[in-house]
Amino acid sequence: MIFNIDDSSDFSLDNLPFGIFSTTDRDKRAGVAIGEKIIDLYALHQVGEVFDFDATILRQEALNDFISLGKSITNKVRSDIQDWFKDKDSVLARNPQVFVNQSDAQMHLPVRIGDYTDFYSSIEHATNVGKMFRDPENALLPNWRHLPVGYHGRSSSIVISGTSINRPYGQTKPVGAAKPIFGPSKRMDFELEMAFIIGKKTSLGDSVSIHQAEDHIFGMVIFNDWSARDIQKWEYIPLGPFLGKSLGSSISPWIVTMEALAPFRVPGPNQDPEVLPYLEYNGNHNYDINLEVDLMPDGGATNTICRSNYKYMYWNMLQQLTHHTVNGCNINIGDMMASGTISGKDTHSYGSMLELTWGGKNPLTLNDGLTRTFIEDGDTITMKAFAEKDGQRVGFGSVSGKILPPKTK
User: Fold this and answer.
1) 211 is catalytic
2) In degrees to the nearest 10, what's the CA dihedral of 123, 125, 131, 132?
3) Is pTM beyond 0.90 here?
4) Total domain count for the chain?
5) Which residues are 188's β-sheet partners?
6) Which of 13, 166, 174, 265 is disulfide-compatible with 284, CB 3.0–4.6 A?
7) In the listed set 58, 79, 107, which residue is the last one of a domain according to the structure?
8) What CATH number does residue 358 fall under?
9) DSSP 3-state helix, strand, coil percentages of the chain (rounded to 5)?
C-alpha cells in the first residue's frame, strides 16, 4: 500500500468514488476519493499516460463525458487504481503530486443534471403520510403497490453539499383560515433520500427493460430533498409537488459506483400484489446502506435524529428506471433519479421531520433541551450513508445544508 487508509474511512480501496474538485492551483477536474486524499486523474495521466482514451475529458467541469465512455472504461480506471495503490513501484507511488488533500479541495456538482425525477418508493414513508393526511385505515392510494410513483422535479435547484438554502416564500392556507396567505414557509423539512445517476442514454421512443436497467445506472449519491410542507400541502392538489419542492435539493459530492456497492446487495421486500410482468426482476437489487440524519442548531451541538437503511425500499432502482422509460421517455447521461423519502419500520428511522414529529404534534427534544417540530433558521442538516460488511466499508461521505432566513422581499 502507498499509505494506510483508516478502517473507518468511507473512501476505502474497495470504494474509489468519482467526483469533480478544484483547488487554489487546479481548475475543476475529475478526481477519485481515497482515504483523506483525492487522486487528480488528469494529473495522473499527464505524468504516466496511463489511460487509453482522450484524457482531456478528465479536465472538464462535469463527469458526463467520462461516464459516456461506458462501464468497461470507468470500471477499468477503478481497478487500475486499486492495483497501482497496492504496488509501491507504480505510477501512483512514484508521483505523490497527483494526490490532493480533501481538506484543501472544493467539491462541485459531479455531473450536469439535465433532468431530475423524484420517486415515492418507501412503503413506510408513504403509509405514514397517508395516515396523517388521508385515511389511517387505507393509507396508500390504489396505484401505489402497482407502480413506482414519481414526479418530474427541478434540476436547476440541485446544489452541492455545503450550499445554504433560504427559507422559501409561497402560498399557504393555515388551518381554519378562509383564504390563503403569502409569506415564508413555517414548516421547513428535509427528506432523507438516495439518488442514482444515469450512465447510458436512450433515444426518444425507446424503453429500458428490467433486464437492461442495471447497465444504465452509473452510481449513487445521498440526496436531501428540502421540502416546505405548508406550501406543499396547499399546492399539491391536483397536480402534485411544485414550489414546496423546487426551492432546492442537496447532494453529496462523490458518486459511488454500482460496482463498489455490489457486495451489499440484499433481497427486497415481498411485493404484494404481484407486479405486472414488465416490472418483474430476478436476483437481489436492494442495497444494505446505513443512513443517518443529524440536526445541528446554530452554535449548538449535533443531534442524531434519524437512523434508517436503504434496504427498506419497496420499489428498487431497476423498477423505477424501467417504469420511467416504459412510455418511450428518453434518458441522458447525468440525469438524476431520487428514491423519495426513506423511512424504516420504527419511529427512530423516519426520514423526515414530518414523520419524526408526526406533523408537528410530537416535538423532538434535542440534547441541549431545545425542541423542534420542523427546521428553524440556522439549523444545519447533515446526512451520512455507508455500507459495511465482512471488513469492507464503502461510504458516501455526507451532504450538509443550512437553512437561512428568507431573503428580504
Assistant:
1) no
2) -160
3) yes
4) 2
5) 228, 375
6) 265
7) 107
8) 3.90.850.10
9) 25, 30, 45
**Whole-number Å distance between alpha carbons of 216 and 393:** 24
Question: Quick check: helix, strand or coil at residue 273?
Answer: coil
Nearest to 74 by CA among 44, 100, 52: 52
Instruction: Give the Cα-Cα-Cα angle 151, 129, 384 (nearest 5 degrees).
Output: 75
Confidence at residue 399, expressed as pLDDT on a 0 to 100 scale = 98
Write the CATH number for 46: 2.30.30.230
* C-alpha cell, 262: 455490489
- Omega prior to 238 cis, within 30 of 0: yes
> Which residues form the domain of 379?
116-404
Q: Contact, 322 vs 209, CB < 8 A?
A: yes
* 242-to-117, 155, 233, 345 alpha-carbon distances in Å: 13, 13, 10, 28
Single residue among 107, 129, 147 that ends a domain in this structure: 107
Looking at residue 408, its pLDDT comes to 87
Catalytic pick among 125, 285, 323, 324: 125
Can you tell me whether residue 379 is helix, strand or coil?
coil
* Amino acid, single-letter form, for residue 17: P
Q: Is residue 6 part of a domain?
A: no
**Of the candidates 109, 155, 152, 382, the residue with the CA atom closest to the CA atom of residue 255:** 109
Strand extents, DSSP E, 14-149? 18-23, 26-34, 37-40, 99-101, 106-108, 116-119
Strands (DSSP E) along 157-310, which ranges?
Answer: 158-160, 165-166, 169-172, 181-184, 188-189, 192-198, 217-225, 227-228, 249-251, 256-257, 265-266, 286-287, 290-296, 303-309
Q: Are residues 199 and 257 in the same domain?
A: yes
Give the CA angle between residues 335, 313, 245 to the nearest 5°: 50
Residues in the chain: 409
Q: Residue-wise over 194-231: b if at least 16 C-beta within 10 A, else e?
A: bbbbbbbbbeeeebbebeebbebbbbbbbbbbbbbbbb
